[in-house]
Design goal:
The chain is mainly α. It has one domain. The chain contains four helices and no strands.
């Protein structure tokens, strides 16, 4: 990762901490998501990166969506 990207990521961190991120900055952060350290949860969350991908064959996926189906079916 070059110094320019590191500088931008640190800038975004400060903007987030100051609660002054613009939509344009969020879009730029999203475009730099592949350069964010995998343990940097603050920047990853703001970049819209999901924690993990669920596959239909995964038990976690099935458990997660079955519970939602039960909740939604009780509403209607």
């Amino acid at each position: 990762m070059n110094d320019t990207i590191k500088t931008r990521l640190e800038y975004f961190r400060k903007q987030i901490e100051n609660e002054s991120m613009s939509y344009g900055e969020i879009a730029e952060l999203q475009s730099l998501a592949e350069h964010i350290d995998k343990n940097d949860t603050l920047l990853l969350q703001w970049a819209g990166v999901k924690e993990f991908k669920l596959k239909k064959e995964d038990k976690e996926y099935n458990r997660h969506f079955r519970n939602k189906e039960k909740i939604y079916s009780n509403l209607f």
